[in-house]
Amino acid sequence: MDYQVNEKGYYGEFGGAWIPEMMFTNIEELSRRYLDIIHSSEFVEEFVKLLKDYVGRPSPLYFSQRLSDFYQTKIYLKREDLNHTGSHKLNNTVGQILLALKLGKTRIIAETGAGQHGVATATVCALKGIKCVVYMGALDIERQAPNVKKMKMLGAKVIPVHSGNKTLKDATNEAMRDWINNPFDTHYIIGSVVGPHPYPDMVARFQAVISKEIKIQLAEQTGSELPTRIIACVGGGSNAAGAFYHFLENDEVELIGVEAAGKGVDTSETAATLKVGSPGVLHASKTMLMQNSDGQITEPYSISAGLDYPGIGPMHAHLFKTGKAKYLYATDKEVLEAALLLTQKEGIIPALESAHALAALNQIKFKENDVTVVNLSGRGDKDMQTYLDYFGY
Questions:
Q1: 8 Å CB contact between 284 and 18
Q2: Residue 303: helix, strand or coil by DSSP?
Q3: Active site (annotated) includes residue 80
Q4: Please, are residues 170 and 137 in contact by the beta-carbon 8 Å criterion?
């Protein structure tokens, strides 16, 4: 079975470009030109150079001895938290800013939830001297204040969104409206494997550097490039798409995504799309999403702003539907406890999003010689107030 996007922009039954006519100009140009641009030798050379010299890649694959002892198995952490700006998000924004320049764009817009994509977008705009506007839910602005200050210091204009539940979905809505109104000079840097084709494919390709490095690093450290399993958190799903990408054709590697259960999948306060959702169209893509019987979007909830999204990337919807990947979920409480365990076992404070992947370790029956790679997608600086409030320090 093919797990990559087809020529029409679909992963199985999911994906496509369900766009209004007003967005046709934007999407048509991007779809027609993106592959030729990103495969050109000039693009590849600059992209690889920036990943190495600016982002700081390759990120380490770290054998977590004390976590391994705790779970009585072998656990490796892919340290995306050590990238410049503190997460995997910069892999994608570096690629998209180079693409935007090749397309002749002079203005960049983005949406952000946890603020990491907003910071990564503002960072590459500062690097290339391009105007930057970031849409962010008013609630997320409150709970991710350090990242908001970083974006402003980097020169971005941060626009608060007060509609809906004032989180990622609403920020995405506003960014799409902006793009429709500014089709000729503006490029929209979507932060995950969501939205209309070609975004899910494009973002996955830029994030695929993660799995490419995992293969090389595992071969060096263990003698085999194939782990037993890979675990990554999933909101829209870009870090998981990147971590899974080069293992999609290897049936012996178990792929595990972890969604945000929030206060429980049996409550109304959850963001576990694949557990409680159904097929529908969200942000111009057919995927699995949280909706009521009338097809209206159900507001998601998660303690982690980056996973507080009512949908999921079409690649993940397809991997779920076909059974190629398994999707678990973790509650806020489980996530906070998993974050504390890693912090006190290894001296690494993870982002709340990444802690969902760590929480899944408690749901797996390990064998002693299993090799498990956890994609540590971001660091916890931005979440310190949440941690402090919860643990009472």
A1: yes
A2: coil
A3: no
A4: yes
- Return d(Cα 337, Cα 217) in angstroms, integer: 29
Looking at residue 325, the DSSP 8-state letter turns out to be: E
* Catalytic entry in 59, 64, 87, 111: 111
pLDDT tens-digit series, residues 33-75: 999 999 999 999 999 999 999 999 999 999 999 999 999 999 9
Instruction: Single out the catalytic residue among 74, 78, 89, 169.
Output: 89
89 is catalytic: yes
The token duo for 12 is: 């199985």
- Cα(345)–Cα(331) distance, rounded to whole angstroms? 21
| Confidence bin at 1 (pLDDT 50/70/90) | confident
- What pLDDT score does 354 carry? 98
Q: What is the pLDDT of residue 65?
A: 98
The two three-digit tokens of residue 112, written as one number: 């952000």
Any catalytic annotation for residue 377? yes
For tokens 């991710």, name the residue: 144
With beta carbons less than 8 A apart as the criterion, state whether 357 and 237 touch.
no
Q: Where in the chain is the domain with CATH 3.40.50.1100?
A: 11-50+89-203, 58-87+207-391
C-alpha to C-alpha distance for 335 and 321, rounded to whole angstroms: 26
CATH class given for the domain over 11-50+89-203: alpha beta
- In CATH, the number for domain 58-87+207-391 is 3.40.50.1100
Taking alpha carbons only, the member of 199, 120, 173, 118 closest to residue 309 is 173
The one catalytic residue among 213, 353, 377, 382: 377
Q: Which residue has the tokens 């952490």?
A: 77
Token readout for 353 is 């999003």
* 350 bridge partner residues: 379
308: Cβ–Cβ under 8 A, 6 or more apart, which residues? 113, 140, 167, 168, 235, 260, 271, 300, 301, 302
Average pLDDT over residues 340-358: 98
